[in-house]
Amino acid sequence: MKILKKIWRWIDDRSGFSEILTPLAKHLVPPGSKWSYVFGSATLFCLILQVVTGVALSLLYQPSSADAYKSLEFITHKAAFGNVLRGIHYFGASAMIVMVGAHMIRVYIMAAYKYPREMSWISGVVLFFLTIAMGFTGQLLRWDANGVWSSVVAAEQLGRIPLIGKPVARLLLGGDTIGGHSLSRFYSYHVFIFPAFIFLFLGYHLMLVIRNGISEPPKAGRPVEPGKYRQWYKDMLQKTGVPFWPYAAWRDLLFGASTIIAVISLAVIFGPPELTLPPDPAAIYVTPAPDWYMLPVFSLFALMPPKIESVIMFAGPLLTILILLSVPFISIKGERSPIRRPWAVFGTIAVLMFVFSLLLLGEKAAWSPRFNAKPLSQAVIHSQDTVVINGADLFYRKGCLYCHTIEGHGGYKGPDLTHAAMRLSSSEMMIRIVNGGADMPAYGGILSKKELTDIIAFLNSR
Amino acid sequence: MNENKAGETRRSFIIKLTLGLSALSAIVAGIPVISALLAPLIAQPPQQWRKVGELDDFAIGSTRLVKFENADAKPWAGTTVQSAAWLRRDTATTFTAFSVNCTHLGCPVRWEQDAELFMCPCHGGVYYKDGSVASGPPPKALIQYRVRINRKDIELLTAPIPISNISA
């Protein structure tokens, strides 16, 4: 035993382990920093999980446009625990996005970004966008039809940047079109370039935690006063601070470990997202949709007025970034308690509701035509009249049913036409069908007179 | 004192030289790195005429999906080398080819033969048979490819994925 101790002492002295780590572990933190402080470390735990599972996936994955799909099939269906591995990496990404969001909201609600922690917020904003970028490029590496079309959609969005839009879009795809160069680039972005920036900014973010200390839980009536704050914080720590390890760290560990166990459970129960068709840009019968955390953006692009959309696609993200970066400069001092900052709380709730409703709308995607609608059955038509039956057939074949519902069958983009005859006369129907509207094609040039009257007869039969 | 001053001048010169050399090495090493990063902007593949079928394959008035290799066909591209277009034979001697990419955000539009409409699955963009916008968010008409008849062969001039810009 004595000799082991001696060996350890030698190692510790020459390596400097205790000397470096003890101050980090034992640094004083404000008392009362409890469960609301665990989201940042949970994000870090998720990141570590992503790095480890990502490295494992790279052992099995072929980063080439031609072979990636086959290797994904191998990982999902053949490799030992490959399915679970993909699942963990997928749900781990989701968890990391949830945690980074929760962390950001907590910091904003408690105004922890105020003096002297402005740079913590700014590096955090950069890390937030890097996390989203990782999520999105990871989705592209799932190189199926969805990956192909998601990259085209991303290129189109980048194309809206004034002046440099086209070259930037081309840089993303690696050329004029999807091809042999595309996946190599996505792989490099996802595995080397973005992670390098994440490690850089994360290192800085954590260094700042040690330098400025974590913010104390806010108290109404105790405003931040730049100039006096640092001394006050130091005195407060001396008087009432507790060592990070183990008094605060145990919560981080418990919550982080629970998060990881939850991620693994989800991966085992649900598995990774199923692969869609192979990555063939000429196989066009697909319905591209992004992973859940991109759905709000997907919805926004469907619901915005088309006139302002191109501008918003560029200005929206730019303004979001600028506003987020300027937060600590807009309110650098003063009250931190959410009770004294009702507008901050209200704003956060408003943004959350906005994003969450868009997410729910994106789940349904009511604006997309339902190409899988089936011709209406006799039970729905319930008429023997050949004109009505022909009208119902045309209602399907002319694409009406893709966007309109009849007794629960069909799409949701346009109004439900089950009882259209109760609202509209025959001539009103004719005007709408022939002329179309903002969200409906004008069928005047498409339908013959007979077809038009048949469809109206069908709608009137209900 | 004088000696010291002379030493300082020399030191400051050597420091400048060192920094300059370091910067130079970084720049020189950076050239191939930046070239790899910007490769898609440096070498733009020429557009190619690709055969998509023969005259007899297309009935007058029909609109069909045709597949062809893109202009930059790398041997390691696998299925991603493919592109597609909607080709219509308008008359005995004229064809129109539409890009499959919706001008809104690039999703692949489908030709609905009976409805005579192109429909996009993503955000509900719809185009008339001439490619003009019928409804939904697309900012402009479907892009067309150039088509030519080379004896019996129908050939189509490849083009980049159309990227809508902010003014569209």
Question: What layout of secondary structure does this protein have?
Answer:
The complex is a heterodimer of chains A (462) and B (168).
Chain A lengths: L1 H14 L1 H10 L1 E2 L9 H22 L7 H10 L4 H28 L8 H24 L3 H14 L6 H9 L6 H33 L16 H12 L1 E2 H27 L24 H9 L2 H25 L11 H23 L13 H4 L4 H12 L2 H4 L1 E2 L2 E2 L9 H4 L2 H10 L13 H12 L2
Antiparallel strand pairs in A: 1-2, 3-4
Chain B lengths: L1 H36 L1 H4 L6 E6 L8 E7 L12 E8 L5 E5 L10 E3 L4 E3 L6 E2 L5 E3 L8 E7 L2 E5 L11
Antiparallel strand pairs in B: 1-10, 2-3, 3-4, 4-9, 5-6, 6-7, 7-8, 9-10
What order do the strands of the largest sheet of chain A run in, or round the barrel if closed?
A: 1-2
The residue-averaged pLDDT of chain B reads: 92
Largest binding interface between chains: A-B, 74 and 60 residues
Secondary-structure element order of chain B, N to C: HHEEEEEEEEEE
Give the quaternary arrangement of the chains. heterodimer
Euclidean distance between termini CA atoms of chain A: 91 Å
Q: Helix count of chain A? A: 20
* Sequence stretches where pLDDT stays below 50 over 5 or more residues of chain B: none
What is the helix fraction of residues of chain A, given as a range? 55-70%
